[in-house]
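Weekly puzzle thread! Below is a chain. First person to post its structure in token form gets bragging rights.
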Amino acid sequence: LVPAYLPEPNNPDRSYVTELATLLCQLGTALNGRTLVLFTSYEMLRQCARLAGPVLEAAGIRLLVQGESGSRDLILRTFRKGEGHVLLGTHSFWEGVDVVGDALSCVIVARLPFSSPGEPVLSARCEQLEREGTSGFRALSLPSAVLRLRQGFGRLIRHRGDRGLVVIADTRILSKNYGGIFRRSLPSPVLDCPDTAAFLSQVADATILCCISSSAGST
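Winning reply:
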């Protein structure tokens, strides 16, 4: 699902982090936790945790925050225990995270995983490509981000019986001309939700489907 009503991450007129935190709270409470949120920066992660933490805690859901709630292994062990947890992670959580079963039913991608343009190695390679007459963005930055998104998407399904929901909160996947490349790289259709009501309706439908599938698998 893509909540198309959210602002783009760099929108100067609306706070993306504030609206993302609201979305996180809506999903966390609807799914009773069971949600992994993937960020591309610690700063956005911390801001979102400060905004969403009190709301989720009031709903009986514990927020597990990379860098604040213990080691990576401890956070994952806690998360795997079952419902009632929302995990916020950055770079190391985009791959190598295996949570099988109902403990993980939703992955939220906070932002398309482009590397920082100031990263020295990436910057140098892009500059070299540009000198050779090739677009560094098209030849390097975009393919790397597409691969990273697929890795993040893959955190949801770790077993043939797993079911769930992926929410891509970055609306550039719909609005930018490179968005189609991201969409075509994913193993399932991307559904555009024009407003909050449509989004929550899709979440409710997905939750029912997951419950039915889980019950069928257990019998």
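Puzzle host: Confirmed. Bonus trivia for everyone else. The beta strands are 2-3, 35-38, 62-65, 85-89, 106-109, 165-168, 192-193.
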